[in-house]
Write a structure and sequence with these properties.
Layout (H helix, E strand, L loop, with lengths): L7 E6 L5 H11 L3 E2 L37 E3 L14 E7 L2 H15 L8 H20 L4 E7 H6 L1 H12 L5 H6 L11
Helix pairs in contact: 2-3
Length: 192
């Protein structure tokens, strides 16, 4: 039994907060990931999104969760509350400067011509702040959830130090050198 088979590893956070980067790090470090290839890599996420479409249906059909032990799965922060609370989770919660998140999100939405690109930045910031506060409060009340906050900028500036933190939280056999090799500071495009 591997060191992660007693819990489900979840990578979460706001959109554009570095969740795909963390999934790449975990995969490179030796952790199996749950992802499909439905959403292909593109200009906004050159190395892929690491998404699992079944996550979007968790509230109606959580059957995929029982097979997630020992693996990492990316779940956007708003969907964490859909996870069955009778399982054990370790959540790597990616944090990023909210102004950077909003700029990155607006750039991505505008490029795609997707609805939402016209929402004023102050309104998006307020919405994200409120939703994050609600998510944090919910997580704090869940005995089956352990959370490690990881700052996106800290990974860019000190990838080795942050890889060690993640390894210590999840599994001592993760290869931190391989994790660090996936971090590309050139992909940090929306800076505050």
């Amino acid at each position: 039994m591997s060191c992660t088979e007693s819990f489900i590893t979840v990578v979460s956070g706001l959109p554009r907060a570095g969740t795909s980067m963390m999934m790449q790090m975990l995969e490179a470090g030796g952790m199996p990931v749950l992802a499909d290839t439905i959403r292909a890599a593109d200009e906004d996420n050159l190395r892929g999104y690491y998404e699992l479409q079944a996550v979007m249906r968790t509230r109606r059909d959580p059957s995929w969760v029982k097979d997630a032990f020992g693996r990492a799965v990316k779940i956007i922060y708003l969907l964490l509350i859909d996870l069955p609370t009778d399982y054990t989770y370790r959540v790597v919660f990616m944090r990023r400067n909210i102004d950077e998140v909003v700029r990155s999100q607006q750039t991505m939405l505008a490029r795609r011509g997707t609805q939402g690109a016209g929402i004023p930045a102050p309104e998006m910031i307020r919405t994200f702040q409120r939703q994050l506060a609600e998510c944090d409060a919910w997580l704090a009340q869940q005995p089956g959830f352990q959370v490690l906050d990881v700052e996106y900028r800290a990974v860019i500036e000190d990838a080795l130090g942050q890889a060690h933190r993640v390894r210590d939280f999840l599994c001592p056999t993760l290869d931190v050198v391989a994790m660090v090799e996936t971090v590309d500071p050139d992909l940090y495009r929306q800076r505050s």
